[in-house]
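ok so i was messing around last nite and threw this chain in just to see what happens. nothing serious, just curious
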Amino acid sequence: MIELEKVLEGNSQKWKEKEHIYERINGKYVSITYGDFIKQTRCLAKYLISCGLKNKAILIYGNNSAKFMMADLAVLHYVGISVCVSKEWKENELKQAIKRLDIACVLYGEEKKDIIEEVAKDCKAPIYILMEEALASSSDCDYKELELADSESCCKIVFSSGTTAEPKAVMLSEKNIFAGLDSMYRRCPFNENDVDYLCLPLSHTYAGIYNFLYSMVFGFSIYLCSDNAVMAREILEVNPTLFCGVPLIYKRFYEGYGSNIAKAFGNRIKYLFCGGALMDENIRRVYKDNGLNMMEAYALSETASTFAIQYPYDSDVKTVGTIAEDIDVKLINTNEEGIGEVVVKGDNVFIGYATNPELTKKSFTEDGYFKTGDVGYLKEDEVNGGYKLYITGRIKKVLIGENGENIEPSHIEEMIRARESGINKAQLFIKDGKLCCRIYIKNELSEKKWDIFFEKLNLDMPAYEKIKQYEVIVDSDEKRWKQ
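result:
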């Protein structure tokens, strides 16, 4: 377990003048040095404490930016509990989070001012502070007496993904957050000369921990994507040494570049990480065959984004990575093929779900392993030692068809999503003996002819797996909250 404050203090002296975070302002990338970043972060923390917010939950809301990063680090390390939420959230999601988590302060970016004004009409209890004003008010301070967070207490809450259920508020400690440092360094010895291009949302653990917070330890610079529409151009401009993406991003690059995919990432890329979902094996193979060091990763918010990562230049396109050396993983309820539910124990495993002790209890085995809900198998990593993890699906209830057939819904739901990227979630269920499907779609697909979509789908299905009825719902984060 690292002593974060010692690391930050040492690095802020060593890299005081090193350009650390870059964001595009008026068409040009503008940097802030490591030393200035730490100074402004500490002064912001002192200011928030002076507002009576010590040990309080503070919601952070805004686009990816240096000020968002400062707010996150200031709160989680010095002030209280950082609750970073999606920039896509609207009034209802914010109101629900404020009430549910007893939020004492909302720290927001200028770009979210109109939404916050509406929220404040109904939620009057929190203090509402504009990030820009907070940073301006705290530009000069004496921060030497700042009290540090307890490394094993909750310092950060992140929301797990989910469409139809209430998002789970995952409580993490500094111990959880930095549990993956050693395993990461074994695979990728980052240093201050590395450059990261970051396009993923900082409200998620993938970007917020493995990109931003780990950069504070390893010292690599971060360029923030200004707009997904110009990502391809900015990557070539930045010429990064490391890049983290999700399968959809890599698929889009593959569709645009094809066999010339190596040209998409400049001439000094060392590490390409893919996580968040399973990536198509054929596309992974194209990246690897073109000499790109594509490294698959697997983790959950509940494991602080630490679980399994491939070693560099591993040619295996089926594994989701070699399990981190510092955690304990096993399979339970295995079948005759050795496939079972993946469970884990270690410093990476979260504290629990905020305001939901019952769900927390259900999520662990009697001997203390967290149940991921994913099904898979393990194989020895003959090159690097340890074990590789292979995910085959999710644990779901088997549906019983009208003729008594056992229907496993996961592969059908995956097939439906694969046929249309605008489907956020597909959910199968039995109603009056008939197999039915409910899909949650993006707004831009509301006029699509879904009759034709399901007719074509059914042509590829055996009789007992044909969809008899369907329901289409335009998805919104609002639906995720229980009323």
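not much to say yet. The longest helix spans residues 34-50.
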